[in-house]
Structures are given as C-alpha cells and as structure tokens.
Amino acid sequence: MADDASLPLPSDAVPAEIKKSPTNAAVKLARYTLTKMAMLLIALTIGVYLTILIANMGGYVDQILKGQIREQITVGLNMDPEFRRLPAAQRNELVEQYIAVEEGRLNLDQPFMLRSFRFLFRALSLNLGRAQHMSSDSGSRDVRNIILERLPSTLLLMATANLLLFFTSVFFALYLSRNYGNILDKLVIGMSPFSAAPAWFYGIFLILLFSAVLGWLPFGGMVAAPPPEDPVKYTLSLLRHLILPVTAWMLSGFFASTYGYRTFFLIFSMEDYVELARAKGLSAREIERRYVLRPTLPNIITNFLLMLISLWQGAIILESVFNWPGLGSLIQRAIGLFDSPVIVGTTVIYAYMLVITVFLLDFIYALVDPRVRVGSGGAKL
Amino acid sequence: MSGLRRAFKDVMQFPTAVVGLLIIFTLVLLSIYTIVTIPYSEAIRLWRGGEEVWGDNPRAVPPAWTNLFRQQKLPESVVLTDESELVGKQMTAMSDGMTDVLLEYTFDYNYDAFPRDLIVFYTAKYESLAPYVAMFWVTPDGREIRLGDFTSRPSQTYRFDQDDRLMRRLRGIQPQVALFDDPEVDGEQPLRGTYTLRVEALLFEADADLDAKFVLYGQVHGLAGTDHRRRDLSVALLWGIPLALSFGLLGALGTSILSMFIAAIGVWFGGVLDELIQRITEVNMLLPTLPILIMVGTFQSRSIWAMLGWIIALSIFGGAVKGYRAIFLQVKEAPYIEAAKAYGAGNARIITLYLIPRIIPVLIPNLVNGIPGFVFLEAALAVLGLGDPVLPTWGKLINDAHSQGALYNGQYYWILQPTVLLMLTGLAFAMVGFALDRVFNPRLREV
Fold first, then answer.
1. Which of A49, A90, A164, B115 is the most core-located residue (most Cβ within 10 A)?
2. Apex B14 CA angle, B13 and B16, nearest 5
3. Which residue of B has its CA nearest to A220?
4. What is the pLDDT of residues B167-196, one digit of tens each?
5. Closest CB to B319 among A306, A321, A343
6. How crowded is the C-beta side of B133, counted as CA atoms within 13 Å?
7. Architecture, CATH, for domain B64-217
C-alpha cells in the first residue's frame, strides 16, 4: 500500500500551467490550508462554546470551579499551624471568607454570559480543572492529566482499527470492481446491511463467543494483569487484547465501506477516459492505478474522513464494552461517578480530536486534489 | 400513486427486502400486542414495582424454553398459595379455643436438577399468642423428613437453607439438594415424583389464622428468564419493541424531514441564507455528538424523549442537508418552477408543492436507512449508563447484563435476547433501505 500513497502523478491528469509555476501552486496550497484551519478553529470554538452552554444547564461549570477553589483554600489554610489551632467554628468562617474573596476575584458573581467566554478560553487552552472523584493512575487529580494518560490507548485502538479497515476495504473493493458480479461481489452486497449494527454490538457477540464460550481470548482490557515486564511479551499481550475490538470494528464497517468503494470504482470505471485507456491497450493494473484510483482519491479521502468522524464517537462505546482503558471508558466511568469536570473535559478533547483529524485529512486532500492547487472549484469539504 | 406502487413492486424483487418487511411487520404486530396487553402503567409497575411484584421469581435464570435443548431438564418455579387447588387446608377446633391447622402443599417434580431455593412465607393473624408451626417434608418414596418448627410472627419467612438445625440433620448437605436427592442412586440426582410439604400449626386464639405461601425457586423461568433483581425479562423485551421502533422512526423522520426543509429553504432563497446553512452544516459535522449527548444525559435529563429531541436537533444540519441541497439546486432550474413563478406562486407554495415532492425518492431510502442508526444509538446510550430512568428498553437490558457480568457468569440468554432483537430490527430496516436505495437511485441500479 506504500506505493499507492506515493503514486506518481499521471502527467496527463495535471494541467500544464502547474508545472510552469510551482510557487504559485504552493501559495495556493498554503492559502487553502490557512482558510481550512481558520474554518476549523471557528468550528472548534463554536463546538466548545456549545459544550459549555450545555454543561452549564445545571450550573455545573460553576460547580467545577467552586469545588476547585474550595479545595485549594482548605488545603492552603491547613498548611498553616496557626490556623489549625483555631476552634472549628472560626476555622470554617475563615475558610468561607477566603472562598468568598477568591470567588469574587474570579468574577463568579458576574452574569453567566460574561463568564461563559472566560470558560471558553480556559477550555480552548485545555485548562480543564480538577476532577471531583477520579484521579489518574499516577495520582493526579488534574483533568488534563487524567485525559492525556488515556489518550494513547484510544489512539492505538483507533489507528489500528481504522487503518486496517480502510486499506482492506479499499483493496477488496478494487478486487470486486475488477471481478464485478462474481460470488464474492454478491456476498459483499448481501452482507452490507449488516453494517447497520455498530462495532460495540458485534463486540458483545465476539466476547460471548471467543471469551465466554471458547475461552480463547481475553474478555477485555489492554494487557494481561499484571502487565508482563518483558517488552516482547507485553506487545504480544497487547496484540492479543487488540484482536477482538479490532475484529468488531471490521465486522461493523467492512461490508458497507467495501460496498461503497466498489460502487464508486464501478461508476468511475464507466467514464469515457477509462474506455479510451482500455482501447489504447493499457494493462488492467495500469488502468486501475492511473485512471480509476487516482481520480477517485480525493473522494476516497472524503469518505474516509466522514467515516473517521462517525467512528471517533463509536469508539466511546466500543471501549466501554471491551474495558479498553481509553477515553471512552473514562467517560463511562465519569458518568457512573457523576464527575462533571471529567465529562466536560473529555467532550472538549473529543472536539479537538475531531478538528485535528479533519485538518490532517483536509491537508492530504489538498495534496492529492489538483483542483485545490489550480484554484478552480475547490474542495467540497 | 402508481409510481409508489411500481416502486413497491420493484422493492419486492429483492428477497432480502421481503424478509426485512416481514420482520418489520412482525415487530409492529408484536408492539401493538404489547401495548394492548401490558399497558404503559402496568409495564412500569412490572419493571419498577418492587419485591412484591417479582419476589417469587428465581434470580437470574434462563428462559423455560431452553429446557428443549437440554438433556438435563432444569426445574421451573413452583409457587403454591392457599388458593391453589394443590393445597389442602384443614382446620380442626380443639378444646380451650385452640385450633389445629393442617396445610398440605403437593406438587410434581420431574426434573434432572435441584431447585435454587426453598422458602415458605407465613402470614399469621393473632392478638397476643403467636401460633406454633412445625413442618414436614414427604418424598415420593414415602420418607418423611422433619423440617423446622418455630413460633410464627405476623409475617415470617422460613428459608430452608438458613435453618441450621435442619442442615445438621441433613449432615450439612444443602436442603434443596438433600430433600430431593434419590437415596438409591450414588451421587446427587433428584428423585422424580410427587412431593408434599406438610405444615402443622397450632393456633391458640379463637379467631387466629395462619396462611402460608410455598415457593420453590426453579432454575428456568417464563418466556425470557429473569435478571439479577428477579424481574421477568419478557416485560422489557416486549416493551423494548414499540420503544425501539418509535424511537428509530421518530428520529429518522424528524431528522430527514427537517433537513429536507432546511436544504429546500436554503436553495430557494439562496444568498446569505444558503451560505449560512452551509457553514452551520460544516460546523455541525465537527461537533462531538455522542459526548454532547452524554453531557445532556448526565446534566439534564435521561428520558429517551428528551434525548431524541437533542439527537434530532444535533443532526438536522448533518450531511443529509448537503445531499438534498445538490438535488434541489438541479430541481430549482427546472422549467416547471419557472412556470410556477410565472403564475405567481409564493415562496412557501413553491417549496412545499414544487421542490419537496421531487426529493421524496431520495428521502425514503435515506429515512429507512436512518432508522437502525437511531435504534442502536438509544441502545448505545443505555449501555453507557444513560438509559431512560423509567422505561424498560433493550439497551438497558444489555447494560444491566453487562454490568452484572452476565457474560462472565455464563448467563448468555440475558444478553443474547435483547441483542438478537436489536440485530433483527436493525437488519430488517437496513435490508429494506438497501433495496429502496437501489430502486430509487438509478445510478446504483446499473452496478
């Protein structure tokens, strides 16, 4: 698949003026990228602001902040030996006084509309506050630390599952479009409604079959407990734990996306220029690479992008079903413990992840779609 | 109309679509049956009533029909109250106002496994002198085993396996095993036949009375088994059907019709409005929908109808708007729109009577294809612990089963029943939607 990523640009597909002025193309690319980035930043800001508005429906954002202030002040005052000698009533009074001053300093007495913009800035700068009940494995109560600790496992699962799904389905779709109408093709068409069920749903069946009944694979988690010391064994254990969630992902996504790509390739291979290439006597492989795959690449990337966006969120439930120690199971535990700072923080992180994903893919899109560099039309997404 | 009939005929060409339609039809019939036989309030009572509603059910046992696939038949529950024909009650008056009560509970036991539990619930009516109760167990081969004896309180529960003296008499073997064990056979095997529980009580007051309910907790129960709180799963499975169908249908209908209107209005009025709608769509696609729903569920309301409202609100500006917009842009240029404008049709009239009807062929497959997504979304929210607090849904069953470790404990029925129903529902709509897509979308029909 490496050679497909670095497909040589077919000379006849690129209009001549680009070659004359590579700087012009670079400027256009840069302008496109900057516009996209600005758009995405606006989207991110709106998304996070909406999150804050929803979270504040019960005054929860205030609660996050107030809890934080209370803890800081109580801990701070308790460090003082003078304070500890005071009678309890006086101590409480002092704490309340300090809290009132601090809340005044942070403008908690201002109307929400004013403060919401301050929250927005805090959230955008990933200043997510302190958790009420949960703590990271290293013992930190900082929501950002809790989330950052979980992020790598989510990324590992997501990347493995999505890349595997993407490449297998694109290549299988190419095969099917070549052998259009054979048994495998019909099978994929017939199976595509099965993609209506999400991955977590297949996950339950897989756990039932392979863990509960057959006992071949673990019920969930990321590595065996206790984690093996030896890095090789650790990796093997990790792979063993990856099998079921990734298979669930594939089962849920494979048929529909293969069917989608296959139909797409078929429609494109009916174009006249493909007929012409065939008439010229080019080999089937050549036609596929230069005349079918190359022009559909931007659309494939858009498809992949849309899939990623919806699947990012599917991962939340997949992780909680498989007990995968990522963001998804974090948010599930936070729901159980009613830990509002963690829930809000995870939502903000999800908003960031979506935007970053879209940006990266948009950039790749710009690289492969000649229209962006020429400046006509422009990308759809 | 004839167009729709032709489309229906075309859809019937797909065998999968026929299967899908049959499944949907069955589900609709089942939901009507459910709503008629178990009204809403009754369903809530059965699902959230408390111990008195489900106290006689065994805890977390598979459905009774699983016995068909077992060589070793598991016992079903036996519940015998005074009203039952199998119970004989004799009251004999004795001297000095005392009454002798004889209660006999007779039942057949033809299973290959032992019961889960044996309990007798007594209710005694007296002023000051409590009745004295003694219990005896008569096996099919005529052995008589003395159980406990005690002075009954107004409401007394006798659990066989918590009677230490009985346990000692049975040499430490659990009563539910020892009382049914066949002495002729080595190892533990229940003796088949008719058993009798005899309760002899002495009432010390003239108008005192004693009633008792004997419950033998089986290892299978009813049509769908029970959960960890002894609730009958069939209530939730049946009520899950109308809930899932209405949730899916309302969600898909609301989303597609609203996005259709938005796209139509944007295209028709064009300019800034269209531009604004497109930008909102782009931003909306980047919103983390599920985390936002999770926040709504945690902070605002877990009611599935509130959730449905939020889901629709978050998805009306979804990708569908782009698709509809592309079609409306073409339709807008059609000569008949020009004609409508010429005879002076207003904006609202053109949008509703000229633009929107043209999109129905695209809308219908989209709508049907959208239903499974909503059905599974509801289940997903429930699995995350954000199920409706009152209504029994399939997702909540899966969540219960998952959090109670049903898979680890081998209680597969508990998780399989709701998942298979979910799968059937999702698959049925997806199969019909797939066929509709190919019928209404000529470009797909060729390939």
1. B115
2. 150
3. B408
4. 888 888 888 888 888 888 877 888 888 888
5. A306
6. 27
7. Sandwich (2.60)
